Amino acid sequence: MRGNPAAYALYQGDGTPATWSDLVTEALEADVVCFGELHDDAVMHWLQQELVRSLLDQGAQPSLGAEMLEADDQLVVNEYLAGVVNLDKLEAAANLWPNHATDYQPLLDLAKEHGLTMTATNVPRRYASWVYKHGLDGLKDLSPDAQAYLPSLPVAFDPSLPGYDAMLAMAGGHGGETLPMAQAIKDATMAHWILQTRTEGQPFVHVNGSYHSQDWEGIVWYLRQAQPDLNVLTIHGDTQVDVWTPDSTALNRADFLVLTQAQMTRTH
Fold it and tell me: Is pLDDT above 60 for 142?
């Protein structure tokens, strides 16, 4: 007979069972929390909101940021949070993901309810496409207005990092060396805007795809290149049918591991 169904289980990165209190305690002490999600996982989206609520309950005033919002939409995001525009105007003006309404709007509304900032951290996608075509060196050819949405040039890039190397291998060599560069400009830009907008002494909770922060690479690498002493807490989201027995491939990829139920309905 099956036991009680469980939507998720929480672990330390090495697979040791952890409590929600463990996670909140460490998040309170962190400068930046990178919550690596699966984009179609409703449980992870709910847990992101619960983490923010738990931090608020402890007296923190976290700043928020999201991969799913692009830097050139920051003005209209701010206007929505300030009540200058309504949801219809936000949806019309911003370059939102197709699943924004169900998966990310609740986090934005949580920020609005509690007077929190929400930073649109990702690179405008047209510039990621430009990097794919022209490499990172091609960013210098963009206008000053365009470069205002980017980190300082030139952008550092280490192709030997396992995540970027694996990306090139998975593509079978197609796309050439600029494929991981297009990923790197996203990571670098997200790290840049986290550092530019975080509040000293308060955790910055950043929502991103797990690939952008797993193995302490991606965003985390760029954060630590800029500020080596930054306290960055990482959460890696993965999914299994049996959430009580972490697969070895999910271990040691972050400070905390969230396993969600693989049979849960996907959001899109």
Answer: yes
